[in-house]
Amino acid sequence: METHFTARKFRAHKDVKDQALAAVQRLDKYYDGIVRCDIILSYERKTNSVKTAEINIHVHGATLSATDSSEEFMKSIDLAVVKLERQLAKYKTKLRTKKKGTLRLVKEGSRTSSDTGDDE
User: Are 37 and 1 in contact (CB under 8 A)?
Assistant: First the structure.
């Protein structure tokens, strides 16, 4: 998985960057088809600011996004990752149901063609 890290209007501390990258790497256990991940950290004001973490994940055929704000970057990152875990689980179940539907159609199609061949 390719990971891009961006800190808007400031330089992120090494601990924050390491924790963000580690949190995103944990998402691989939910779905291994993640192509790219973008982590964007920003804040509103210099003092007493709300810190925002935005994480965008690009998978085959879709982009999943989560944004969360709190008083600390680490907390915002963890909350955004929890949202992405739920989104990945939902995306994965949608893929499974679509594949089951096409598999059923293929099986039914082969049965009907073999049934019509026997009648001749």
Answer: yes
Q: Answer whether 96's CB lies under 8 Å from 75's CB.
A: no
3-class SS of residue 73: helix
Place of tokens 């804040």: 43
Q: In angstroms, rounded to a whole number, what is the distance separating the alpha carbons of residues 67 and 90? A: 17
DSSP-assigned letter for residue 66? E
Q: Hey, what domains does the chain have and what are their CATH numbers? A: 2-87 (3.30.160.100)
Strand order through the sheet with 2-7: 2-7, 34-43, 51-59, 62-70
* pLDDT tens digits along 13-72: 999 999 999 999 999 988 888 999 999 999 988 888 899 999 999 998 899 999 999 999
Residue 25 exposure: Cα atoms within 13 Å on the Cβ side:
6
**Single pTM value for the model:** 0.79
Q: Which residue has the tokens 């998985």?
A: 1
Task: Work out whether the CA dihedral 82, 88, 89, 90 comes out positive or negative.
Answer: positive
